[in-house]
Amino acid sequence: MNNTYTKIVLKSGKDQSLKRFHPWVFSGAVKKIYGTVSEGDIVSVYSNQDEFLGLGHYQIGSIAVRVFSFTEVNPDRDFWKSKLEEAYRLRAALGLTDSQQTNVYRLVHAEGDGMPGLIIDIYNGTAVMQMHSIGMFQIRMQLAEILKEIMGDKLKAVFDKSSKTIPFKAGIEATDGFILGESSPEMVTENGLHFNVDWVEGQKTGFFIDQRDNRQLLSQYSKDRDVLNMFCYTGGFSFYAMKGGARSVHSVDSSGKAIDLTRENVELNYPDDKRHEAIVADAFDFLKDIKDKYDLIVLDPPAFAKHREALGHALQGYKRINAKAFEQIRPGGILFTFSCSQVVSKEKFREAVFSGAAIAGRTVRILHQMTQPADHPVSIYHPEGEYLKGLVLYVE
Fold first, then answer.
1. Which residue range forms the structural domain that includes residue 389?
2. What is the DSSP letter of 387?
C-alpha cells in the first residue's frame, strides 16, 4: 500500500462505527491530522491505538472523510474498475442492463455500492454522473473511461452533472457537460412506458428513477379510480395510473415547466386521452377544497428537509400535507405518500403521517411499506442510504 497518504487519527472511542464498516468519519471524531490535507485528497484513517481503519476522501464539513475501503489497498485504476464492475454485475443480475422494457436505471448508488460521493444513472445508453465529493470529482475522467471499457457499445456518452452537487466550500467552479462522447436528451423506456428526459435542466440526473417499482404498484390500484398526483414533476405516477385503468387523472405541480413535461409524457403514452388534466397550483392551496373528488391520491413532495436542522419543520410539513389528503379523500380511498428526505427516518415519517390521520379523524390501515428499488441498494452498514420512504394507506 502507498503510505504517503495523510494520516488522520481518531479520538478514543470514536473508532467503533468504522469497525462496524460505517463509511463516514465526522469532523468531531478527528483527534489529529498528520501533515497537510486538501479537500478531495485520499487519507488513511487510524484509531487512537494506531489501528488502520480505512481509506477515504477528505472533505471540509461535518463529514470529514468518506471511506471507500476498509482494507489497505492501492486505490489505483484497477481498484476503481473492480468497484464499477461489481456495480454493473449487480444491475445485470437485476435484469436491467439488457431489458427491452426498461432502459433507465441507477448504475452506482454512492455508499450502497461502496463509492461514497458518486451517483451514475443510465438513460438509454447515456451515463449521467453526479459527484457529491471532490475526491470523486477529481477522478471523473478515469471513471468515465472505465465505464466505457465495461459497457462497450452499450454506452454512447457520459454527461457530468456535478455543478450543483459538489461541495461549495472547495471553491471549484464545475460546469456541466459531456466528458465522453455526445448524445441528445431523448425518449427512454420504463416498464414499457415512455418519457422524455432532460438531464441538462431536469432535477436530480433528469428523472426520479427511484420511484420505478412504486409507480408500477400504483398502476395496480388505479382501475376505475379518480387519481390526484400531487407534486407531479414529469408525471410518472400519472401515466402509470392511466396504464392501470384510472377513470380520471389530475397532475398538479407549482412549476409550469414540470406541468409542460407532464403533458408531453402523457401524450407520448396516451395521445389525446381526455382522462388527464395537468394543473399549475400550490399543493397546500389545491388540497384545501377537493372534498370527495378523488379516491386515489399521490403525495410525493420534494425533500422537506435536506439538513438535520430542518427536521422539525419538515415533520410538520409532512403532517400538514397528509392531514389535508386524509381530510379530502373519499371513503375507501387509497393514499400513496412519500418522503425522500434522508434525515427523516422511517419511524419519524410514519409518526408524521399518523398524526395527520389523527387530525383528520379517519380510520387508516397500512397496505404497503415502500422504499427505493434494488438498483438503489442500501449498505447494511449504512442505513442512512435508505432515503426513500413510502406508505400505501387505505382510508375508510
1. 208-395
2. -
